[in-house]
Protein backbone atom coordinates (compact mmCIF):
# COMPACT_ATOMS: atom_id res chain seq x y z
CA UNK A 1 0.00 0.00 0.00
CA UNK A 2 1.35 3.43 -0.98
CA UNK A 3 0.86 6.66 0.99
CA UNK A 4 -0.26 9.47 -1.31
CA UNK A 5 -0.60 13.16 -0.42
CA UNK A 6 -2.88 15.22 -2.67
CA UNK A 7 -3.06 19.00 -2.42
CA UNK A 8 -4.04 22.10 -4.32
CA UNK A 9 -1.21 24.57 -4.93
CA UNK A 10 -1.63 27.81 -3.00
CA UNK A 11 -0.14 31.24 -3.55
CA UNK A 12 1.60 31.06 -0.16
CA UNK A 13 3.33 27.85 -1.23
CA UNK A 14 4.85 29.69 -4.20
CA UNK A 15 5.82 32.82 -2.22
CA UNK A 16 7.51 30.84 0.57
CA UNK A 17 9.39 28.70 -1.98
CA UNK A 18 10.94 31.87 -3.42
CA UNK A 19 12.26 32.67 0.06
CA UNK A 20 13.42 29.06 0.51
CA UNK A 21 10.95 28.64 3.36
CA UNK A 22 8.30 26.04 4.09
CA UNK A 23 4.61 26.57 3.54
CA UNK A 24 1.80 24.05 3.85
CA UNK A 25 2.65 21.52 1.13
CA UNK A 26 6.37 21.43 1.91
CA UNK A 27 5.67 21.22 5.66
CA UNK A 28 3.42 18.19 5.30
CA UNK A 29 5.73 16.55 2.76
CA UNK A 30 8.87 16.86 4.90
CA UNK A 31 7.65 16.88 8.52
CA UNK A 32 4.75 14.45 8.74
CA UNK A 33 5.54 11.19 10.50
CA UNK A 34 4.26 9.35 7.42
CA UNK A 35 6.75 9.16 4.56
CA UNK A 36 4.73 9.73 1.42
CA UNK A 37 5.41 7.69 -1.69
CA UNK A 38 3.76 10.19 -4.00
CA UNK A 39 2.79 13.86 -3.72
CA UNK A 40 0.22 15.02 -6.25
CA UNK A 41 -0.14 18.82 -6.51
CA UNK A 42 -3.15 20.22 -8.42
CA UNK A 43 -2.59 23.69 -9.89
CA UNK A 44 -4.60 26.12 -11.98
CA UNK A 45 -2.55 29.33 -11.58
CA UNK A 46 1.08 30.65 -11.40
CA UNK A 47 2.12 28.35 -14.26
CA UNK A 48 5.44 30.18 -14.70
CA UNK A 49 6.50 28.96 -11.21
CA UNK A 50 5.38 25.34 -11.44
CA UNK A 51 8.68 23.85 -12.62
CA UNK A 52 10.67 25.85 -10.07
CA UNK A 53 8.37 24.73 -7.24
CA UNK A 54 8.43 21.10 -8.32
CA UNK A 55 12.27 21.07 -8.55
CA UNK A 56 12.65 22.88 -5.20
CA UNK A 57 10.32 20.50 -3.33
CA UNK A 58 11.84 17.35 -4.82
CA UNK A 59 15.33 18.59 -3.87
CA UNK A 60 14.25 19.11 -0.24
CA UNK A 61 12.68 15.65 -0.18
CA UNK A 62 15.91 14.12 -1.52
CA UNK A 63 18.06 15.94 1.05
CA UNK A 64 15.81 14.66 3.85
CA UNK A 65 15.90 11.15 2.40
CA UNK A 66 12.14 11.16 1.81
CA UNK A 67 11.06 8.67 -0.88
CA UNK A 68 8.25 10.78 -2.33
CA UNK A 69 8.25 12.30 -5.79
CA UNK A 70 6.27 15.52 -6.09
CA UNK A 71 4.56 16.36 -9.36
CA UNK A 72 2.35 19.28 -10.35
CA UNK A 73 -0.64 18.52 -12.54
CA UNK A 74 -2.28 21.34 -14.48
CA UNK A 75 -6.04 21.66 -13.86
CA UNK A 76 -7.97 23.87 -16.25
CA UNK A 77 -10.85 25.86 -14.76
CA UNK A 78 -12.25 29.35 -15.22
CA UNK A 79 -12.29 30.18 -11.50
CA UNK A 80 -10.77 28.76 -8.30
CA UNK A 81 -14.25 29.02 -6.75
CA UNK A 82 -16.07 27.04 -9.45
CA UNK A 83 -17.52 24.27 -7.29
CA UNK A 84 -18.65 22.15 -10.22
CA UNK A 85 -15.21 22.20 -11.86
CA UNK A 86 -13.40 21.56 -8.57
CA UNK A 87 -15.72 18.63 -7.80
CA UNK A 88 -15.09 17.05 -11.21
CA UNK A 89 -11.32 17.35 -10.78
CA UNK A 90 -11.25 15.96 -7.23
CA UNK A 91 -13.56 13.08 -8.09
CA UNK A 92 -11.43 12.11 -11.10
CA UNK A 93 -8.16 12.04 -9.14
CA UNK A 94 -9.56 10.41 -5.99
CA UNK A 95 -11.32 7.77 -8.07
CA UNK A 96 -8.03 6.93 -9.84
CA UNK A 97 -5.96 6.85 -6.64
CA UNK A 98 -8.49 4.77 -4.70
CA UNK A 99 -8.56 1.97 -7.30
CA UNK A 100 -4.91 1.14 -6.50
CA UNK A 101 -5.65 0.59 -2.81
CA UNK A 102 -3.61 3.65 -1.78
CA UNK A 103 -3.84 5.34 1.59
CA UNK A 104 -4.83 8.87 0.55
CA UNK A 105 -4.08 12.02 2.56
CA UNK A 106 -5.61 15.39 1.59
CA UNK A 107 -4.06 18.75 2.50
CA UNK A 108 -6.84 21.13 3.66
CA UNK A 109 -4.61 24.21 4.16
CA UNK A 110 -3.62 25.11 0.60
CA UNK A 111 -6.15 26.26 -1.99
CA UNK A 112 -9.41 28.19 -1.81
CA UNK A 113 -12.24 27.54 0.68
CA UNK A 114 -14.19 25.98 -2.21
CA UNK A 115 -11.37 23.51 -2.79
CA UNK A 116 -11.27 22.64 0.91
CA UNK A 117 -15.05 22.12 1.08
CA UNK A 118 -15.09 19.83 -1.95
CA UNK A 119 -12.08 17.91 -0.61
CA UNK A 120 -13.90 17.20 2.67
CA UNK A 121 -17.13 16.19 0.95
CA UNK A 122 -15.48 13.72 -1.42
CA UNK A 123 -12.69 12.60 0.87
CA UNK A 124 -14.96 11.90 3.85
CA UNK A 125 -18.22 11.04 2.15
CA UNK A 126 -16.97 8.72 -0.61
CA UNK A 127 -13.27 7.83 -0.68
CA UNK A 128 -12.32 7.29 2.99
CA UNK A 129 -9.36 9.69 2.90
CA UNK A 130 -7.35 11.14 5.77
CA UNK A 131 -6.97 14.89 6.24
CA UNK A 132 -3.96 17.02 7.14
CA UNK A 133 -3.36 20.70 7.76
CA UNK A 134 -0.40 22.84 8.79
CA UNK A 135 -0.15 25.74 11.19
CA UNK A 136 1.61 29.11 10.87
CA UNK A 137 4.45 27.67 12.93
CA UNK A 138 4.86 24.85 10.38
CA UNK A 139 3.26 22.34 12.73
CA UNK A 140 1.46 19.31 11.27
CA UNK A 141 -1.99 18.25 12.38
CA UNK A 142 -4.14 15.30 11.38
CA UNK A 143 -7.74 16.46 11.12
CA UNK A 144 -10.61 14.24 12.22
CA UNK A 145 -13.91 15.17 10.57
CA UNK A 146 -16.54 14.47 13.27
CA UNK A 147 -19.33 13.54 10.88
CA UNK A 148 -20.65 10.36 9.35
CA UNK A 149 -22.02 11.91 6.17
CA UNK A 150 -24.20 8.91 5.28
CA UNK A 151 -25.74 8.73 8.74
CA UNK A 152 -26.11 12.52 8.89
CA UNK A 153 -27.83 12.56 5.51
CA UNK A 154 -30.20 9.79 6.58
CA UNK A 155 -31.01 11.62 9.83
CA UNK A 156 -31.57 14.94 8.06
CA UNK A 157 -33.71 13.18 5.45
CA UNK A 158 -35.85 11.66 8.20
CA UNK A 159 -36.18 15.05 9.87
CA UNK A 160 -37.07 16.65 6.54
CA UNK A 161 -39.69 14.00 5.87
CA UNK A 162 -41.15 14.39 9.34
CA UNK A 163 -41.30 18.18 8.98
CA UNK A 164 -42.86 17.87 5.55
CA UNK A 165 -45.52 15.43 6.71
CA UNK A 166 -46.32 17.71 9.64
CA UNK A 167 -46.44 20.80 7.42
CA UNK A 168 -48.92 19.34 4.95
CA UNK A 169 -49.30 19.90 1.22
CA UNK A 170 -47.50 22.73 -0.51
CA UNK A 171 -49.64 24.06 -3.36
CA UNK A 172 -47.76 27.25 -4.20
CA UNK A 173 -48.39 29.71 -6.97
CA UNK A 174 -51.45 31.39 -8.40
CA UNK A 175 -54.84 29.97 -9.32
CA UNK A 176 -53.76 27.54 -12.03
CA UNK A 177 -52.22 25.41 -9.25
CA UNK A 178 -55.53 25.06 -7.39
CA UNK A 179 -57.71 22.01 -7.99
CA UNK A 180 -61.13 22.99 -9.33
CA UNK A 181 -62.99 20.10 -10.95
CA UNK A 182 -66.06 20.80 -8.81
CA UNK A 183 -68.51 23.56 -9.70
CA UNK A 184 -68.18 25.15 -6.25
CA UNK A 185 -64.41 25.50 -6.58
CA UNK A 186 -64.62 26.80 -10.14
CA UNK A 187 -66.94 29.59 -8.98
CA UNK A 188 -64.68 30.30 -6.00
CA UNK A 189 -61.55 30.60 -8.14
CA UNK A 190 -63.33 32.95 -10.53
CA UNK A 191 -64.26 35.15 -7.57
CA UNK A 192 -60.77 34.98 -6.07
CA UNK A 193 -59.16 35.79 -9.43
CA UNK A 194 -61.27 38.92 -9.77
CA UNK A 195 -60.53 39.87 -6.17
CA UNK A 196 -56.78 39.41 -6.71
CA UNK A 197 -56.77 42.10 -9.40
CA UNK A 198 -58.09 44.65 -6.92
CA UNK A 199 -56.19 45.94 -3.92
CA UNK A 200 -59.10 45.35 -1.55
CA UNK A 201 -58.86 43.59 1.80
CA UNK A 202 -60.33 40.09 1.72
CA UNK A 203 -61.67 37.66 4.31
CA UNK A 204 -61.35 33.94 3.62
CA UNK A 205 -63.74 31.72 5.56
CA UNK A 206 -63.75 27.94 5.83
CA UNK A 207 -63.31 24.98 8.11
CA UNK A 208 -59.87 24.01 9.41
CA UNK A 209 -57.79 22.27 6.77
CA UNK A 210 -59.68 23.55 3.72
CA UNK A 211 -56.68 25.47 2.37
CA UNK A 212 -57.27 29.06 3.41
CA UNK A 213 -53.57 29.90 3.45
CA UNK A 214 -53.15 28.27 0.03
CA UNK A 215 -55.91 30.50 -1.35
CA UNK A 216 -54.38 33.59 0.28
CA UNK A 217 -51.04 32.75 -1.36
CA UNK A 218 -52.78 32.38 -4.72
CA UNK A 219 -54.54 35.75 -4.34
CA UNK A 220 -51.22 37.43 -3.56
CA UNK A 221 -49.49 35.65 -6.48
CA UNK A 222 -52.23 36.80 -8.85
CA UNK A 223 -52.13 40.41 -7.69
CA UNK A 224 -50.12 43.46 -8.73
CA UNK A 225 -48.16 42.98 -5.49
CA UNK A 226 -46.86 39.53 -6.45
CA UNK A 227 -43.28 40.80 -6.84
CA UNK A 228 -43.37 42.03 -3.24
CA UNK A 229 -43.34 39.99 -0.05
CA UNK A 230 -46.23 38.02 1.45
CA UNK A 231 -45.97 37.89 5.24
CA UNK A 232 -48.06 35.52 7.36
CA UNK A 233 -48.93 35.65 11.05
CA UNK A 234 -51.04 33.20 13.05
CA UNK A 235 -53.17 35.51 15.15
CA UNK A 236 -53.96 32.71 17.61
CA UNK A 237 -50.24 32.51 18.49
CA UNK A 238 -49.70 36.24 19.12
CA UNK A 239 -48.49 36.73 22.72
CA UNK A 240 -50.36 39.65 24.29
CA UNK A 241 -47.22 41.25 25.71
CA UNK A 242 -45.32 41.19 22.40
CA UNK A 243 -48.08 41.89 19.89
CA UNK A 244 -47.11 45.56 19.42
CA UNK A 245 -43.49 44.65 18.74
CA UNK A 246 -44.39 41.79 16.38
CA UNK A 247 -46.87 43.81 14.34
CA UNK A 248 -45.42 47.33 14.53
CA UNK A 249 -41.79 46.87 15.55
CA UNK A 250 -39.71 48.56 18.26
CA UNK A 251 -36.69 50.81 18.65
CA UNK A 252 -33.52 49.89 20.51
CA UNK A 253 -33.99 50.13 24.27
CA UNK A 254 -37.80 50.22 24.09
CA UNK A 255 -38.00 47.42 26.66
CA UNK A 256 -35.79 44.85 28.35
CA UNK A 257 -34.23 42.67 25.67
CA UNK A 258 -34.75 45.21 22.85
CA UNK A 259 -31.05 45.40 22.05
CA UNK A 260 -31.56 46.52 18.45
CA UNK A 261 -34.18 48.07 16.19
CA UNK A 262 -36.85 45.76 14.83
CA UNK A 263 -39.25 46.30 11.94
CA UNK A 264 -42.67 44.78 12.62
CA UNK A 265 -44.70 42.71 10.17
CA UNK A 266 -46.50 45.74 8.75
CA UNK A 267 -43.19 47.34 7.80
CA UNK A 268 -41.79 44.03 6.53
CA UNK A 269 -44.84 43.62 4.30
CA UNK A 270 -44.76 47.23 3.05
CA UNK A 271 -45.72 47.24 -0.64
CA UNK A 272 -46.86 43.64 -0.36
CA UNK A 273 -49.44 41.59 1.49
CA UNK A 274 -49.98 40.67 5.14
CA UNK A 275 -51.98 37.49 5.76
CA UNK A 276 -53.69 37.38 9.15
CA UNK A 277 -54.45 33.70 9.67
CA UNK A 278 -57.00 32.73 12.34
CA UNK A 279 -58.01 36.39 12.73
CA UNK A 280 -60.99 35.27 14.82
CA UNK A 281 -58.58 34.46 17.66
CA UNK A 282 -57.55 38.10 18.18
CA UNK A 283 -58.21 39.47 21.64
CA UNK A 284 -60.31 42.65 21.93
CA UNK A 285 -57.22 44.71 22.83
CA UNK A 286 -55.36 43.58 19.73
CA UNK A 287 -58.45 44.15 17.57
CA UNK A 288 -58.38 47.83 18.58
CA UNK A 289 -54.70 48.20 17.64
CA UNK A 290 -55.22 46.47 14.30
CA UNK A 291 -58.24 48.62 13.46
CA UNK A 292 -56.26 51.79 14.09
CA UNK A 293 -53.57 50.76 11.59
CA UNK A 294 -56.13 49.81 8.95
CA UNK A 295 -57.92 53.14 9.36
CA UNK A 296 -54.85 55.39 9.39
CA UNK A 297 -52.41 53.45 7.22
CA UNK A 298 -49.54 54.18 9.56
CA UNK A 299 -47.75 52.55 12.47
CA UNK A 300 -45.56 53.63 15.37
CA UNK A 301 -42.82 51.41 16.63
CA UNK A 302 -42.79 50.63 20.36
CA UNK A 303 -40.69 53.27 22.12
CA UNK A 304 -40.73 55.65 19.15
CA UNK A 305 -42.60 58.93 18.63
CA UNK A 306 -42.25 58.84 14.87
CA UNK A 307 -45.12 57.49 12.74
CA UNK A 308 -44.40 55.55 9.57
CA UNK A 309 -46.66 55.18 6.55
CA UNK A 310 -47.25 51.62 5.37
CA UNK A 311 -48.86 50.35 2.18
CA UNK A 312 -50.03 46.84 2.96
CA UNK A 313 -52.84 44.75 1.54
CA UNK A 314 -54.60 42.73 4.23
CA UNK A 315 -55.84 39.20 3.68
CA UNK A 316 -57.45 37.50 6.68
CA UNK A 317 -58.80 34.03 7.33
CA UNK A 318 -60.71 32.21 10.04
CA UNK A 319 -62.68 29.04 10.67
CA UNK A 320 -64.74 30.78 13.33
CA UNK A 321 -68.23 32.31 12.73
CA UNK A 322 -67.23 35.98 12.68
CA UNK A 323 -70.77 37.26 12.06
CA UNK A 324 -72.00 35.48 15.19
CA UNK A 325 -68.98 36.81 17.07
CA UNK A 326 -69.85 40.34 15.93
CA UNK A 327 -73.39 39.79 17.16
CA UNK A 328 -72.26 38.64 20.61
CA UNK A 329 -69.60 41.33 20.90
CA UNK A 330 -66.48 39.15 20.84
CA UNK A 331 -65.32 40.58 17.51
CA UNK A 332 -65.49 44.28 16.66
CA UNK A 333 -68.05 45.15 14.01
CA UNK A 334 -65.96 48.01 12.59
CA UNK A 335 -62.91 45.71 12.24
CA UNK A 336 -65.04 43.03 10.60
CA UNK A 337 -66.22 45.43 7.89
CA UNK A 338 -62.67 46.67 7.37
CA UNK A 339 -61.54 43.11 6.69
CA UNK A 340 -64.59 41.73 4.92
CA UNK A 341 -64.61 43.95 1.83
CA UNK A 342 -64.21 40.84 -0.28
CA UNK A 343 -65.46 37.61 1.30
CA UNK A 344 -64.71 34.12 -0.01
CA UNK A 345 -65.81 30.90 1.68
CA UNK A 346 -63.90 27.72 0.92
CA UNK A 347 -66.13 24.65 0.74
CA UNK A 348 -65.21 21.65 2.89
CA UNK A 349 -63.79 18.61 1.11
CA UNK A 350 -67.03 16.64 1.51
CA UNK A 351 -68.74 19.26 -0.69
CA UNK A 352 -66.17 19.03 -3.49
CA UNK A 353 -65.78 15.28 -3.98
CA UNK A 354 -65.09 15.73 -7.72
CA UNK A 355 -61.78 17.36 -6.73
CA UNK A 356 -60.61 14.43 -4.60
CA UNK A 357 -58.92 12.29 -7.33
CA UNK A 358 -56.80 15.22 -8.52
CA UNK A 359 -56.02 16.31 -4.95
CA UNK A 360 -54.96 12.77 -4.08
CA UNK A 361 -52.73 12.67 -7.17
CA UNK A 362 -51.06 15.98 -6.25
CA UNK A 363 -50.58 15.08 -2.60
CA UNK A 364 -49.26 11.60 -3.42
CA UNK A 365 -46.75 13.04 -5.90
CA UNK A 366 -45.50 15.43 -3.23
CA UNK A 367 -45.29 12.67 -0.61
CA UNK A 368 -43.39 10.45 -3.06
CA UNK A 369 -40.91 13.26 -3.72
CA UNK A 370 -40.40 13.73 0.03
CA UNK A 371 -40.02 10.02 0.85
CA UNK A 372 -37.69 9.50 -2.12
CA UNK A 373 -34.84 10.59 0.20
CA UNK A 374 -35.18 7.22 1.95
CA UNK A 375 -32.88 4.60 0.39
CA UNK A 376 -34.73 1.95 -1.66
CA UNK A 377 -38.04 3.80 -1.36
CA UNK A 378 -40.62 2.60 -3.88
CA UNK A 379 -42.80 5.35 -5.35
CA UNK A 380 -46.46 4.77 -4.49
CA UNK A 381 -49.59 4.92 -6.63
CA UNK A 382 -53.18 4.44 -5.50
CA UNK A 383 -55.90 2.01 -6.55
CA UNK A 384 -59.30 3.03 -7.89
CA UNK A 385 -61.03 1.30 -4.98
CA UNK A 386 -58.97 3.39 -2.53
CA UNK A 387 -59.90 6.57 -4.41
CA UNK A 388 -63.59 5.61 -4.25
CA UNK A 389 -63.29 4.93 -0.52
CA UNK A 390 -61.67 8.33 0.01
CA UNK A 391 -64.50 10.01 -1.91
CA UNK A 392 -67.06 8.44 0.44
CA UNK A 393 -65.44 9.73 3.64
CA UNK A 394 -66.64 12.93 5.39
CA UNK A 395 -63.10 14.29 6.03
CA UNK A 396 -63.86 16.55 9.01
CA UNK A 397 -60.21 17.68 8.87
CA UNK A 398 -60.49 18.35 5.12
CA UNK A 399 -57.35 18.50 2.94
CA UNK A 400 -55.05 18.49 5.97
CA UNK A 401 -56.65 15.26 7.19
CA UNK A 402 -56.41 13.74 3.69
CA UNK A 403 -52.70 14.63 3.57
CA UNK A 404 -52.13 13.02 6.96
CA UNK A 405 -53.99 9.84 5.99
CA UNK A 406 -52.08 9.44 2.72
CA UNK A 407 -48.75 10.08 4.49
CA UNK A 408 -49.52 7.35 7.04
CA UNK A 409 -50.70 4.97 4.35
CA UNK A 410 -47.51 5.49 2.33
CA UNK A 411 -45.44 4.88 5.46
CA UNK A 412 -47.05 1.51 6.23
CA UNK A 413 -47.97 0.23 2.76
CA UNK A 414 -46.37 -3.11 1.88
CA UNK A 415 -46.65 -2.72 -1.90
CA UNK A 416 -46.21 0.10 -4.38
CA UNK A 417 -49.99 0.55 -4.70
CA UNK A 418 -52.12 1.94 -1.90
CA UNK A 419 -55.18 -0.27 -1.54
CA UNK A 420 -58.58 0.38 -0.02
CA UNK A 421 -57.39 -1.62 3.00
CA UNK A 422 -54.33 0.63 3.39
CA UNK A 423 -56.45 3.79 3.51
CA UNK A 424 -59.28 2.27 5.56
CA UNK A 425 -56.80 0.83 8.05
CA UNK A 426 -55.25 4.24 8.66
CA UNK A 427 -58.68 5.84 9.01
CA UNK A 428 -59.79 3.19 11.50
CA UNK A 429 -56.60 3.65 13.52
CA UNK A 430 -57.05 7.41 13.64
CA UNK A 431 -60.68 7.10 14.72
CA UNK A 432 -59.91 4.53 17.39
CA UNK A 433 -57.03 6.63 18.73
CA UNK A 434 -59.28 9.68 18.93
CA UNK A 435 -61.89 7.87 21.01
CA UNK A 436 -61.68 7.33 24.74
CA UNK A 437 -60.97 3.65 25.14
CA UNK A 438 -61.67 3.88 28.85
CA UNK A 439 -65.25 5.10 28.53
CA UNK A 440 -66.97 1.79 29.28
CA UNK A 441 -69.84 2.12 31.76
CA UNK A 442 -69.37 0.57 35.20
CA UNK A 443 -70.17 -3.16 35.14
CA UNK A 444 -72.56 -3.70 38.05
CA UNK A 445 -75.26 -6.22 38.82
CA UNK A 446 -78.16 -5.80 36.40
CA UNK A 447 -76.06 -4.26 33.61
CA UNK A 448 -78.04 -4.57 30.35
CA UNK A 449 -75.45 -5.53 27.73
CA UNK A 450 -78.00 -5.71 24.91
CA UNK A 451 -79.18 -2.19 25.60
CA UNK A 452 -75.56 -1.02 25.57
CA UNK A 453 -74.89 -2.78 22.25
CA UNK A 454 -78.08 -1.37 20.73
CA UNK A 455 -76.96 2.12 21.74
CA UNK A 456 -73.65 1.66 19.95
CA UNK A 457 -75.42 0.20 16.90
CA UNK A 458 -77.77 3.19 16.78
CA UNK A 459 -74.85 5.66 16.78
CA UNK A 460 -73.09 3.75 13.98
CA UNK A 461 -76.22 3.59 11.83
CA UNK A 462 -76.93 7.30 12.26
CA UNK A 463 -73.29 8.09 11.39
CA UNK A 464 -73.53 5.96 8.23
CA UNK A 465 -76.76 7.67 7.19
CA UNK A 466 -75.23 11.10 7.70
CA UNK A 467 -72.14 10.12 5.72
CA UNK A 468 -74.17 8.86 2.75
CA UNK A 469 -76.76 11.62 2.76
CA UNK A 470 -79.48 9.25 3.97
CA UNK A 471 -79.04 6.72 1.14
CA UNK A 472 -80.03 3.33 2.62
CA UNK A 473 -78.25 1.23 -0.03
CA UNK A 474 -74.96 3.10 0.37
CA UNK A 475 -75.30 3.02 4.17
CA UNK A 476 -75.92 -0.74 4.14
CA UNK A 477 -72.85 -1.25 1.94
CA UNK A 478 -70.78 1.00 4.19
CA UNK A 479 -71.81 -1.07 7.23
CA UNK A 480 -71.08 -4.37 5.45
CA UNK A 481 -74.74 -5.46 5.36
CA UNK A 482 -76.07 -7.71 2.61
CA UNK A 483 -78.86 -5.32 1.57
CA UNK A 484 -80.71 -2.19 2.58
CA UNK A 485 -83.65 -4.22 3.87
CA UNK A 486 -81.49 -5.50 6.73
CA UNK A 487 -80.62 -1.92 7.56
CA UNK A 488 -84.29 -0.92 7.42
CA UNK A 489 -85.14 -3.72 9.87
CA UNK A 490 -82.44 -2.58 12.26
CA UNK A 491 -83.70 1.00 12.05
CA UNK A 492 -87.24 -0.13 12.75
CA UNK A 493 -86.16 -2.22 15.74
CA UNK A 494 -84.03 0.59 17.15
CA UNK A 495 -86.72 3.19 16.36
CA UNK A 496 -84.38 5.28 14.24
CA UNK A 497 -86.80 7.64 12.58
CA UNK A 498 -86.49 9.83 9.51
CA UNK A 499 -85.59 12.88 11.60
CA UNK A 500 -82.15 11.31 12.07
CA UNK A 501 -81.52 11.68 8.35
CA UNK A 502 -79.69 14.74 7.03
Strand and helix map with partners:
Layout lengths: L2 E6 L2 H8 L5 H8 L6 E6 L6 H14 L5 E6 L8 H16 L4 E5 L5 H13 L4 E5 L5 E4 L5 H19 L15 H15 L4 E4 L6 H10 L8 E5 L8 H6 E2 L11 E2 L1 H4 L4 E5 L6 H13 L1 E3 L6 E3 L3 E6 L3 H6 L5 H7 L2 E4 L10 H16 L9 E2 L1 H9 L5 H15 L4 E2 L1 H15 L14 H19 L4 H7 L5 H10 L9
Parallel strand pairs: 1-2, 1-4, 2-3, 4-5, 7-14, 7-15, 8-11, 11-14, 16-17
Antiparallel strand pairs: 5-6, 9-10, 12-13
What is the compact description of this entry?
This protein is an alpha/beta fold. Helices cover 46% and strands 14% of the residues.
Structural write-up:
A six-stranded mixed beta sheet has the order 3-2-1-4-5-6, sandwiched between helices. The N and C termini lie far apart (81 Å). The model has no long low-confidence stretch (mean pLDDT 86). Strand 12 and strand 13 form a beta hairpin. The relative contact order is 0.07. Helix content is 46%, strand content 14%. It has 20 helices and 17 strands. Helix 4 packs parallel to helix 5, helix 14 crosses helix 16 and helix 19 packs across helix 20. The protein is extended and about 105 Å long. The protein has 502 residues and is of the alpha/beta class. The longest helix has 19 residues.
Amino acid sequence: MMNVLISWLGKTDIEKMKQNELASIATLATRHTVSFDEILILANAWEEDWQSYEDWLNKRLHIMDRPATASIVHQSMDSPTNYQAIAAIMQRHLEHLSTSNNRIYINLTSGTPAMTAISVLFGKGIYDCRFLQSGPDNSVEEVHIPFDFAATYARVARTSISAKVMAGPDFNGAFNDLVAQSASMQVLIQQASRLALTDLPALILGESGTGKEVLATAIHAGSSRSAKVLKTINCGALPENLVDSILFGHVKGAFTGADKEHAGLFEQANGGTLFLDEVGELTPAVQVKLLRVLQQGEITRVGDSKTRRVDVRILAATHRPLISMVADGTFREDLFYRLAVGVIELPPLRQRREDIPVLVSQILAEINATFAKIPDYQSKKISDSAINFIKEQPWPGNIRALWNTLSRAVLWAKSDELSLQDIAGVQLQLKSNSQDNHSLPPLVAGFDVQQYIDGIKEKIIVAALEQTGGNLSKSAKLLGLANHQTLSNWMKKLEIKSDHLP
